[in-house]
Amino acid sequence: MFFGQPAPQVRGAGLRVDGLVIAFAGAGPVLAVPDLALLPGSATAIQGPSGAGKTSLLHALAGIECPSAGTVRWDGDDLWAMPGRARDRWRRARLGLVFQDMHLLPGLSALDNVLLPALFDHARIPDALRTRGLELLDGLGVPDPGRRAAVLSRGERQRVALARALLRQPAILLADEPTASLDAAAGREVGTLLMDAAAAGGATLLVATHDPALLERLPHRLQLDAGHLEVAA
């Protein structure tokens, strides 16, 4: 399966998946993707019922969930052939991930949550990254970067999670149900922010979603059902 047309001056990464299988001991495969290819800068939805394997697929593509077999290559880099620390460095440098449950630390401010991943590489956050974090929060509609995540609305927390994913201008942007549990208006706003951010940076965008409004805005669709991936009609 091959999707997308490269945009001018695209920064995104190209994806090639071959023979990807995720299985658990004592059970058959929960996910099987014989082949998948995405062009740099493409925007693709993964749709399917709960439990179909959407999160497992995103996590395998992000270098988080180790597959039982197969290869995941971004721009030719074989993700699962890398040593663990090298894969972690690759992920921090190349990929932004918006988790379904956001995974913010409630006791930290919005800005500190955005900057937290940078602490893996810096003992002290560089001024340029701090400035970018502030600019992202402002542009995404989070007016008070000093407020603790615990007191933010769900829509605000989702914006903070998106700002964190965008901090290092990633070539790859993966989002797992980014509008889930938001009302229709907040969902539209977050969907627009996600699409605009990916387009502005030329990132390759892959979104797992049930949201009909967001699905309509993504030009390419995959259907995942019972662990099997197909082109959506």
- What value does the average pLDDT take? 89
Class derived from helix and strand content: alpha/beta
**Percent of sequence in beta strands:** 15-25%
The radius of gyration is 17 Å
> Poorly predicted ranges (pLDDT <50, ≥5 residues)?
1-8
Relative helix content: 25-40%
The DSSP helix count reads: 7
Structural write-up:
The chain is α/β, with parallel strands linked by helices and 233 residues long. It is built from seven helices and eleven strands. It has a six-stranded mixed beta sheet. Helix 5 (154-166) packs parallel to helix 6. The radius of gyration is 17 Å and the shape is globular. It starts with a strand and ends with a strand.
Outline the secondary-structure elements:
Layout: E1 2-3, E2 15-23, E3 29-38, E4 43-47, H1 54-61, E5 69-74, E6 77-78, H2 84-94, E7 95-98, H3 110-115, H4 127-139, H5 154-166, E8 172-176, H6 184-201, E9 204-208, H7 212-217, E10 220-225, E11 228-231
Parallel strand pairs: 1-3, 4-9, 4-10, 7-8, 8-9
Antiparallel strand pairs: 2-3, 2-5, 5-6, 10-11
Helix pairs in contact: 5-6
What's a quick, concise take on this entry?
This protein is an alpha/beta fold and 233 residues long. The chain is built from seven helices and eleven strands.
Give keywords:
233 residues; five-stranded mixed beta sheet; 32% helix
